[in-house]
């Protein structure tokens, strides 16, 4: 495991790199709004990806590196994320396809930036479809805007809602709520099986 600091337009971000032997792709994973890269579902997804021969970069947004818990505005999150993706794509992961992903807020960033960042697929852990109790404030347009294969791993009782499967989009429902802690083996299994399927054509 290696840590790399990356300068972005909004301050330094940090990437924790977990490299797979002979990695055939690289997955960038972002954290939730008030959480960090040690979230159990991110750890489970990282383990699944490395087991599947995929490098992983767990990305800490600049506001978290600076010690703040309140998230930055979406525009800043997206710009910082793309800066990290560009840096890692040119240095560590220069010869492999990039996948974007994250949990909750990090999943939203991955969706919004997938086209500009030329991601070949998107992994969403606990995508927050809407704020709890406010289904009218839907964020599904961010998910619907993804034009590459996407996997959403969602808790059955997630108060942030749950999306339906769609073109290019698979949805795996697991026991539990927004933190996905109730079935971490399910997270690992879902991510591993999906990566094996979508990366086969890229080999």
From TrEMBL:
<dbReference type="InterPro" id="IPR029058">
    <property type="entry name" value="AB_hydrolase_fold"/>
</dbReference>
<dbReference type="InterPro" id="IPR046879">
    <property type="entry name" value="KANL3/Tex30_Abhydrolase"/>
</dbReference>
<protein>
    <recommendedName>
        <fullName>KANL3/Tex30 alpha/beta hydrolase-like domain-containing protein</fullName>
    </recommendedName>
</protein>
<dbReference type="InterPro" id="IPR026555">
    <property type="entry name" value="NSL3/Tex30"/>
</dbReference>
<dbReference type="Pfam" id="PF20408">
    <property type="entry name" value="Abhydrolase_11"/>
</dbReference>
<feature type="domain" description="KANL3/Tex30 alpha/beta hydrolase-like">
    <location>
        <begin position="24"/>
        <end position="181"/>
    </location>
</feature>
């Amino acid at each position: 495991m290696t840590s790399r600091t990356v300068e972005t337009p909004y301050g330094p971000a940090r990437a924790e790199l977990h490299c797979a032997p002979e990695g055939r792709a690289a997955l960038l994973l972002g954290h939730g709004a008030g959480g960090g890269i040690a979230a159990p579902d991110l750890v489970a997804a990282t383990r699944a990806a490395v087991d599947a021969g995929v490098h992983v970069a767990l990305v800490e947004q600049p506001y978290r590196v600076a010690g703040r818990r309140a998230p930055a505005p979406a525009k800043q999150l997206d710009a910082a994320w793309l800066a990290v993706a560009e840096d890692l794509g040119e240095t560590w992961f220069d010869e492999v396809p990039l996948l974007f992903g994250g949990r909750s807020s990090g999943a939203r960033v991955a969706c919004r930036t997938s086209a500009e960042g030329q991601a070949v697929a998107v992994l969403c852990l606990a995508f927050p479809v809407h704020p709890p109790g406010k289904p009218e404030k839907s964020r599904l347009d961010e998910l619907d805007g993804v034009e590459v294969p996407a996997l959403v791993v969602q808790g059955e009782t997630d108060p942030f809602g749950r999306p339906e499967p769609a073109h290019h989009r698979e949805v795996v429902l697991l026991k539990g709520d927004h933190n996905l802690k109730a079935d971490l083996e399910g997270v690992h299994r879902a991510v591993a099986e999906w990566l094996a399927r979508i990366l086969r054509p890229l080999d």
